[in-house]
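Narrative summary of target 7.
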Amino acid sequence: MNSKLKDRFATSILYVIAGIICALLLGIIGYVLVLGVPQISWDFLTAPSESFSAGGGIGPQLFNSFYLLFLTLCISVPISLGAAIYLSEYAKDNWITKSVRLMVEVLSSLPSIVVGLFGFLIFVIYFGWSFSILSGALALTLFNLPILVRVMEESLKSVASTQREAGLALGLTRWETVIYVLVPTALPGIITGIILSAGRVFGEAAALIYTAGQNAPALNFANFNIFSQESPWNIMRPAETLAVHIWKVNSEGVVPDATAISNGTAAILIIAILLFNVLARVIGKYVYRLMTSS
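Modeled conformation, tokenized:
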């Protein structure tokens, strides 16, 4: 077999592998959407869930998922950006930097159930916050930090060194160069990483079962008393999310239409995660064109 045939054979194998992966992904997504989309309606998206009777919706769970995601990003993005700036611009190649990178790698490899149990012991038990949105957001922050730190660090490192030199040559301090030159240039990659990590966090369940809880009290959006259990803005109330709701409905088995609810909720999760991925590409390209004027 000559080199050209070997090259074609190897290329064909790669195409087959890629095709199998795409077929598996499309099969899973298609299966979930075919079963779940017919269950979706306005009432299903807005009505509260039922504990024992059929016909419940996912209104509180849907809001809780987005609210938890918002709080998680508010906590994790500034911390991750600070860590990424330190590692890419200020950290020296010594044992401290190596220890930080090792801790980031170890944290990224932890199973989500371990993060949930840690959050249960620290936030729920030790700090006494009980099952709450705050406990869940902090647990998801631990889950989200390694991804964001690595993405942001790589985005900052991808900026050409000439831009650093140009900023310093213009009289900017090192910190001003980072804030006004490097971060805006790396912004497309940073935003893409944030949106992709949001999609991963949005579908998380194991870490939230032990921190945010498995209850979704009825919400009154006209209630702005942040200490009321009915207020959607109260961060100390329990908050069952979409992924936890799927697990709870199937594990308890007391709702007559549990299969329909699970299918519809799974379809909403899939659609949301697909939108996160599409938004990551669209917004990333838009910001890149905006920052580069191309």
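The chain has a mean pLDDT of 85.
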